[in-house]
Amino acid sequence: MLSEKDLLLFKGKLLQMKTDTMEILESNQPLSFEDYGELTSYDNHFADTATELDEREKQMFIFENGKRILEEVNEALERISDGTYGVCVDTGENIPYDRLVALPYAKRTVEAQEKFENQPIPSRQGDQSFSTPKEDVRGDKRIQTVDEIQSLHGNSSY
Prior knowledge:
The protein is mainly alpha-helical. 53% of the residues lie in helices and 0% in strands.
């Protein structure tokens, strides 16, 4: 169980993380062509377009990661207010102090986090094919699916 002094320490760290993350989010807004001095991508060389795309992807990653961290920090601050900070949300065990020092917004013990991350992702059941069902009675034979075209003409990789 964490002492009041520990909780104040972690609350201060979390508030600083929140401020830093919000500054990063504000400074990394997604760029447009105008930000590169271009009104359109029409006259750009392929390499210029690829560079711009790479920069946009980096910014999107930073932005999405920052939003996720901000959510985690806000959730940790709520747990401090609720009196549940430092307790694993899955097992109810105390999260080790060293883990909280390393990751102040941790909500699981290392073991519970590994178990959480290794859970299989639920997949959609059923046929994932784009083929037209046999019982389809639309009457329009002009519509061909990828499966039908491949069965008639083969695959380009053959």
